[in-house]
Amino acid sequence: MGFVVDLIREYGFGIVFLNVLIEQMGAPIPAYPVLVVTGALEGTSMARLGLLTLIAVVAALIADVLWYRAGKAYGQKVLGQICRISLSPDACIRQTESVYGRWGAKSLLVAKFVPGFASIASALAGVVGTPFRTFVLFDTLGALIWVGSAVFLGSLFSSTVEDLLDVLTALGKWGLLLLAVAFAVFVARKWWQRQRVVRSLKMPRMSVEELAGLNARGTTPTVIDVREPLLFGQGHIPGASSWLEHQGKGRPAYEHLLPREQHEHGLVVYCDCPDEISAARVARQLQRAGFHNVRPLTGGLSAWEAAGFELEKPEA
What is the dihedral of CA 123, 127, 128, 133, to 10 degrees? Predict the structure, then answer.
């Protein structure tokens, strides 16, 4: 453990740069605690604290701009790829879409305080066409708030942090083992929670080929898109309706599907997230409301595009 602390003292700025860059690229390796510790070790030197802040902000901007460009170049398919490396991929896209759809680029001011939000929000900004200057302005301010708060806390409680490091150093290998076990328990808990959710939402699914075949035969089921209206407007499966446009308004979202007899060919629900979690949740809700033959679409929108099927997009 003493070696690790010495490493942070000697190469703290380089470690911070790599840690922030890797975390903002989507890896579940928290950078905030490292920023706090490094800020504490730098003490009261305003010049060093300022340099630390600058380095961390630059690292965050590099990662975020890369995701922005990826979203602009590759569209919605890049969102699912980011969430596959998240510890909570089922909630990852849906929550980010909801917040960004409501607040737009302003949500970038707090994005980095929410695990998994920053990289998705950056890519989403590119997908929906947020102007690059607007993106950079709010993303830079958000990075400054995030990094600045960590560095400030570290310098404010520098004596407490150093005391904690001294205790861990005194424990030697046991101190390092303690940190490793804590991280392993955190990851295992997230994994177990995800497996429980996946098992609870097991149900028959429909492939994109099956859906295309039904459309070709004229036995088209009712297709529901559960993504945010912001992304629905960017492109959706032909004939689909937006679920969230009917949510709220003082009544259940499924009421726009009544009467049930009009959906004799069943309902197909899709999203664009790993394991179709969001679609499966809506499908369960529809089943409880009395709808029959409701199935999530395997692979969602990404699978539909990958199979070469066209999307319905607004006219330019």
Answer: 60
